[in-house]
Recover the amino acids of this structure.
């Protein structure tokens, strides 16, 4: 008999949420039964990661998990975000889910916001990566075989030439010492194209440069068929 708690994972399409899934897979307490992701309704992409919806859907298919997508307007106000997330979590509760996992590492203000939004829902937020050392986490992500590519960069702190690079030891070594090796402060974002828990590797290639604005640059990943 499976007496594990059913849990959803807040899925960004990047390396940190992939590592959370890896940890939860080994848990005696939780069973991940769904992924929850927000995308911009106009672009059909994960906002900061710039992941196209089709790539997001391929990740979920490779994990054999249902993907629950919440579409948000560009520059979404918190009130709209909260309303839509709470509606999605009603679906979770109807399916017997009362826990959701987030991939935050140490940004207290973001953790407190998640806790505030969920405070009266009956859904418990958990943070499996909380207070992990970013260097240790980055190394562990690489060592267990989570393969990711750099999709978005804050050009105020990093050069856009790093876009399209793989998240590996060479990339980490190239970072200035003031940059968090996991990009926890929004310095960069990633897309996971292979992992120990994927049924198949997602074949991608680097496409054209995208610009959110003068600050954030991204690369448009393309599927190789």
């Amino acid at each position: 008999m499976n007496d594990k708690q059913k849990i959803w994972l807040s899925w960004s399409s990047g390396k940190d949420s992939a590592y959370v899934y890896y940890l939860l897979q080994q848990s005696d307490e939780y069973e991940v039964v769904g992924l929850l992701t927000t995308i911009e309704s106009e672009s059909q992409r994960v906002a900061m990661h710039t992941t196209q919806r089709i790539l997001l859907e391929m990740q979920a298919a490779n994990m054999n998990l249902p993907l629950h997508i919440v579409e948000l307007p560009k520059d979404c106000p918190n009130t709209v975000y909260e309303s839509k997330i709470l509606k999605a979590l009603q679906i979770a509760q109807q399916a017997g889910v009362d826990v959701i996992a987030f991939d935050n590492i140490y940004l207290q203000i973001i953790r407190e916001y998640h806790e505030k939004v969920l405070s009266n829902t009956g859904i418990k937020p958990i943070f499996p990566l909380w207070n992990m050392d970013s260097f240790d986490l980055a190394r562990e992500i690489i060592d267990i075989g989570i393969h990711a590519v750099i999709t978005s960069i804050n050009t105020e702190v990093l050069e856009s030439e790093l876009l399209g690079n793989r998240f590996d030891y060479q990339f980490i070594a190239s970072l200035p010492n003031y940059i968090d090796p996991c990009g926890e402060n929004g310095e960069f974002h990633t897309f996971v194209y292979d992992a120990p828990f994927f049924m198949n590797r997602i074949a991608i290639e680097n496409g054209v440069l995208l610009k959110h604005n003068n600050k954030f640059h991204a690369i448009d990943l393309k599927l190789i068929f």
Notes: Helices lie at 15-25, 53-63, 78-94, 108-118, 134-143, 169-174.
